[in-house]
Amino acid sequence: MEKAQKKIDWGKTLETARELLGSVRFMFFETLLALLVAAFRSEVVGAVLFVALISLKLVVCEDILATTLPFLLVSAFLTSCYDSFNTFIVFLPAAPVVVFCVLFHFIVYKKPFLGGESADGIGLVAIAVTLGGIGGFTFMEYARGAFYLFGLGLGLLVAYFLMKSQFSVRYGYDMRERFALVMTLFGTLCTCMVLFGHLRNLFSLPNGAYSYGVSPNNISTMLMFAMPFPMYLGRKHKWKTALVAAFFAGICGTHSRGGFLMGGAELIVCAVLWLKEGKWTKKRVLGIVLAGVATLAVAGAAIWETLFERLLGSSLTEEVRFTMLKEGFLNFADRPLFGTGILDDSIAYGEMNKKGTMTWYHMFIPQVVGSMGALGVFAYTMQALGRYDLVMKSRSPWSVCLGVSYLGLFLMSQVNPGEFCPIPFGLLAVLLFILQERRLSEQTLPIASSFWRGAEKGFYEIERVDGK
Fold first, then answer.
1. How far is Cα 155 from Cα 164, in angstroms, rounded to an integer?
2. Neighbour tally for 44: CB within 10 Å
3. How far apart are CA 162 and CA 174, in angstroms?
């Protein structure tokens, strides 16, 4: 008698795969894999692996948060690939596969179309970006700059609506703590990348195009994004708060002047908020003092060099940013309504920008004023006011944590491209405020669909809505 063949329960297999790929343990595995990529300078191989992993998750996992950490990790270690347009353009033929996986996810795991308060500001900015410099470019110039024109404008509006719907359902975990863990692991990778760079210098190993193995301003910006989240996790496990100081030490280790100044300001904000929440207890004050001493011990030399050689030892008027500051307001005077457009490459940085990038002013205000004129000033002002309102409405530790994270990006954008890099910074900024909107509507969020185990068994619990 032939043995009866066992039938494969594909539903259960898919369910098991989802639970594995979306688990906290798998997040630690992804972080370890990214650490190995960074340690051995295998960014190209790592990019292929992580893009494949993200594509797999898009097809298998209903929860979009499962793709967030690998996306951030690959964004981090790829910043070490200086002027690498020609290196990665060879992978363009594989792009349709990735696009298919993205479309598959948003079609098969479709959620109700939702909008929110952020949409107005993003929409106004999209109009300002699109109309900036109108009439001043040829069709081919628009085609070459399509990534930034779309990515900073209508692309972020599309991304908002897609992510808003995906993040507006409940799963069987606390979204706040899970996202805080994602950002903490992201910051841990960035800090370790700086450490690896210094170790390679110590042992006279090649560090690539960067003196310390990382792109100083990009990694600093990422660490400023991540800085407040260990503080949120520290509400349950106090030791995790120490990672805030570790992230700032990582910023100092990049020798980024903007990171040192703006990251220092963000660190002070984090310290004040932490003390305020704990009512200035002796333990908390002592903890901050010890963290400060440890930071000086670890990054004291880097702080000294950044402060006294790179900051105080340079002349402001010799900075190319000083030249572009003047150019921004001259361009506004020349075209006050719409500016000269983000595709304008006539400013000083135009001679230095790398293939495949736009010509940034490296300063937020001149970028808006010069590139988008009065329309841009109005659009970004309205967006800023709307975002501030979201942070302050029914204010809680979580809303402040998300707000301080964005504050880090906003501060860094005053001296670097920052928010004018659509991926990952512009996209991540949009996500922070989607989470602010989610915070305000958590009591009415629907549970996930029956694709996930337990939907009919009461497996899902309403997430905390007590502001903690």
1. 14
2. 16
3. 21
